[in-house]
Amino acid sequence: MSKLVIVESPAKAKTIGKYLGSGYVVKASMGHLRDLPKKKMSVDIEHDFKPEYVPIEGKDKIIKEIRSEIRKSDFVYLATDPDREGEAISWHIKELFKLKDKDSKRVTFNEITKPAVKYGIEHPRDIDIDLVNAQQARRILDRIVGYELSPFLWRKVKRGLSAGRVQSVATRLVVDRENEIRAFVPEEYWTIEALLQTEDGGRFTARYYGDASGKVELKNEEQTQAIVDAVSGKPFTVGDIKRGKKKRTPAPPFITSTLQQEASRKLNMTPRRTMSIAQELYEGIELGEYGLTGLITYMRTDSLRLSDEATAAAAGFIRGRYGEEYYPGKPRVFKTKGNAQDAHEAIRPSDVKLLPDEIRQYLTPDQYKLYRLIWSRFVACQMADALLDTVSADIVCEGQVFRASGHTVAFPGFTAVYEEGTDDEKKGEAGKPLPRFAEGDMLTVQKLDPAQHFTQPPARYTEASLIRAMEERGIGRPSTYAPTISTILDRDYVTKENRALRPTPLGEGVTGLLVDEFKSVADYEFTANMEEQLDEVEAGKLDYIQLLHKFYDGFESALKQAEVDLEGKRIKIQDEVTDVICDKCGRNMVIKSGRFGKFLACPGFPECTNTKPITEDTGAACPMCGAKVVKKKSARGYVYYSCDTYPTCQFMTWDKPLKTKCPQCDSSLFRHTDRDSKEVTDVCLREGCGYKELVKEGVSPEEAEKNRQRREARAAKAAERAAAKAAAEAAGEAEEKPKKVTKKATANKSAAKKQVPWMTKTTNRFKKLKDEDVQALTKTQQGQYAKALAKYEAEKAAEKAAKAKKPARKSAKEKEAADE
Q1: 431: which DSSP letter?
Q2: DSSP category for residue 158
Q3: At what angle do helices 524-538 and 129-156 cross, to 10 degrees?
Q4: Which helix (DSSP H) or strand (DSSP E) does residue 381 occupy?
Q5: Known catalytic membership, residue 524
Q6: What stretches of 282-347 adopt beta strand conformation (E)?
Q7: Which whole-number Å values give the CA distances from 172 to 485, 538, 660, in the listed order?
Q8: Which 3 state secondary structure label does DSSP give 608?
Q9: How many CA atoms lie within 13 A of 733 on its CB side?
Q10: 3-class secondary structure, 409
Q11: What confidence tens digit (pLDDT) does each residue in 446-476 have?
């Protein structure tokens, strides 16, 4: 009999199966096979929070296949991911299939390479129940908060809201930053920059520093102008010159949070996208002669530890490729933070000799970019320091001191491979080298430039800086950063403008309520302490039932008190008012959210039902009619551009509009990227013009043809899958139809049709609702009500016109037109 290995994903199963050979069968569970059911809380609070786990809906086929393989096998290896979630998946599989200890063991792989897989299989262990309990505790905590707090928000704010432990604190971080920005009072300050020239023609800029007594802050124009007047037309002399050397050390290898931050800064990837691609690199990519190969180590980690084998391989590679002077002489060791779990290595390439450019042809563009980032960071972290020659000079005129500083690179060291990004663009600017001069040299002033400035408020969080803030406060863990940010964006608590995160009115309203009433949900310190307690459960130092009791006692009392405090009250979330005027009634339109995203609506609803899509002016002119070209989003979320007068003007394009004009016809240009060749061109779309300018060359015609064939093959496969799915659904409907008819025949008449609030129970006629009743409806119901109201008013108007004119009986087509 064969041995069965159970992993999470088919890609991982394929890679591991290749390494283990014919004596093993590798099956994928596709994640969890059982969980708490969605339709009820399924946690027995009165009996020590006992959870009720059930097989996940839709996993019947996978469960059946795995059960069949278990019967054929003489031993089962549970090889899910090496973290809390992976441990819990293995435990659930063992419990679901009632596997005995003698017939099953847990194995883990820090990387999906042949040696690592062989080592893991040779060193099986029992399931770590402490890891499982830590995951169970988190799952039960989140279920309690979600199922008991969300209905409270429905009653006091609006239906459809949800609250979570970590997501509420993440939203609060964004809300608090927005409040800081609003409360910020800018202060005026001035600078003076002098453009100076040496005797041999070298130019550089010096900034005003102060006088002989020290640094002077310029607060106003009068103070600044007095200094400009004092030095204008006077000689500038080089004073003290300080020269020195500065070392720059490389950043440590990536952990989950820093990988997400750097990918956001350098690759403009969301945390969710980053982790998805990293998962693909970890599970294995087909690399031609190398076969299926896992390219990186496990990507959910908070440890900076590197194995001796990895650092030795890096040392050999650096010496061979860059030279002995680029290696510091011994491996660099980085200290992991005190609250880190340290269960795995840092994120690194599984084989440093697999150069990104050499395997690029086997990777997607995003896989290549992320692998190159991980590979470069790892290699750089084991390289020698960069050495800089620094110089700082005081330039003196009439007792006033201007200061210039710069540096030159004496030895690039690790910067030959990689430099860490930064959220602050000013900090990321490199110092410019200064021209040669000596103390006492006379300088010529080319220009004096006084400038007024105002202090700036703290910047809004980006996804990268929010992850860093969560990590610094101890909120969440490596596996939770990406899903937390995705959740608060998806639930419209936070919105993303360019790259900045801004709270919505809904997010601010809900956060205010949680901060006032629920310390156990929205408090930074409480949430961080809870993470530490979960770590203690994982380490076997704390019983998870005790943790749950401690949390629930405080949470339950807070919930009861909040019900008392807000009895008879309902918190109204103010809509965001825009400067767009309603065409029908003249009110300022507000931003609403619907099934397909945000849109503009008239606040006079239901009297005025006018709505508009939210558009963004691109600054370009329509090549067909000359009106504005605006940015829009499709129902699926894809960005496209169309004429502002659509549907009067039918112009639409996927090409990005530019503010530059066509040199031939003065129409706006559009940037076009060819899907196959990747050639980028600026084109004029005005009929008959044909202007085209190359911006970036694409791949060779042969490669472009291959890309076209691959794209068409993918499209054909997708069409086949869609057709097969439609056929299966049609067959399923045909089989189920008799059952549905029978069910309808026996069903209670009152339950046969769901009653909606705007239809009378007895006559089933439309009735108008009050404003407060409309606001209490769900988003979907509000949309349905608006359509029903519009139809009702159209019918009434048609009836009134008919009575006034007493026309002949309307035809069927006329009735349809009146209905529409």
Answers
A1: P
A2: -
A3: 150
A4: helix 365-381
A5: no
A6: 285-286, 292-293
A7: 12, 27, 41
A8: coil
A9: 6
A10: strand
A11: 999 999 999 999 999 999 899 999 988 888 8
Confidence (pLDDT) at 734 = 54
> Bridge partners of 189?
453
| pLDDT top residue among 429 and 640 | 640
Confidence at residue 593, expressed as pLDDT on a 0 to 100 scale: 72
According to the model, what pLDDT value does residue 753 have? 44
Own/partner pairs for 639-645, CB < 8 Å, 24+ apart? Answer: 641/670, 644/615, 644/617
- Cβ atoms of 580 and 612 closer than 8 Å: yes
254 burial via Cβ count (<10 Å: 0-12, 13-18, 19+): buried
* 651-692 residue pLDDT tens: 999 999 998 899 999 899 999 998 888 889 999 999 889 899
Report the SS3 class of residue 228. helix
Using one digit for the tens of pLDDT, what is the confidence trace for 700-746? Answer: 888 888 888 888 888 888 888 778 777 776 665 554 444 444 444 44
The three-state secondary structure class of 352 is coil
Query: What tokens appear for 232 in the block?
Result: 């204008």
Q: Exposed, middle or buried by CB within 10 Å (0-12, 13-18, 19+), for 62?
A: middle
Tokens of 284: 């294995």
pLDDT digits (tens, 9 = 90+) for 585-626: 888 998 887 666 678 889 888 888 888 877 788 889 999 998
pLDDT at 732: 58
State how far the Cα of 494 lies from the Cα of 44, in Å rounded to an integer. 33
Give dist(CA 401, CA 77) in Å, integer. Answer: 73
pLDDT at 79: 93
The one-letter code for the residue type at 245 is K
Q: Is 212 helix (H, G, I), strand (E, B) or coil?
A: coil
Say how far apart CA 659 and CA 810 lie, in whole Å.
Answer: 53
For residue 648, with 0-12 CB atoms within 10 Å meaning exposed, 13-18 middle and 19 or more buried, which class applies?
Answer: exposed
Tell me which of 19, 77, 298, 461 is the catalytic residue: 298
Q: Which two tokens stand for residue 440?
A: 């006492």
Q: Quick one: how many helices (H) and strands (E) in the chain? A: 23, 31
Q: Taking Cα atoms as reference points, which of 375, 376, 369, 371 lies closest to residue 415?
A: 376
3-state secondary structure of 560: helix
Residue-wise pLDDT tens digits, 340-352: 555 678 999 999 9
Cα distances (Å, whole numbers) of residue 58 to 55, 96, 249? 9, 15, 51
* pLDDT tops 70 at residue 749: no
Q: Which two tokens stand for residue 275?
A: 């982790």
747 pLDDT band, cuts 50/70/90, is very low
Q: What angle do CA 88, 89, 93 make, to 5 degrees?
A: 115
CA–CA distance from 666 to each of 230, 618, 626, 686, 795 (Å)? Answer: 50, 17, 11, 10, 49
- Cα–Cα distance measured from residue 302 to residue 478, given in angstroms and rounded to the nearest whole number: 6
* Other CB atoms within 10 A of residue 171 CB: 28
Residue-wise burial string across 667-698, b where 16 or more C-beta atoms lie within 10 A, e elsewhere: bbbbbbeeebbebebbbbbbeeeebeeeeeeb
Structure tokens at 84: 């809390």
Beta bridge mates, 395: 238, 402
The residue written with tokens 């391989």 in the block is 313
**Residues 511 and 175: beta-carbon distance below 8 Å:** yes
| Dist CA 543 CA 551 (whole Å) | 13
What distances in angstroms separate CA 379 from CA 165, 302, 355, 521, one per listed residue? 38, 19, 11, 41
The yes-or-no verdict on residue 283 having pLDDT over 80 is yes
- CA nearest neighbour of 31 among 6, 54, 8, 14: 8
C-alpha 555/C-alpha 165 separation (Å) is: 11
In this structure, are residues 787 and 794 in contact, taking their beta carbons and an 8 Å threshold? Answer: no
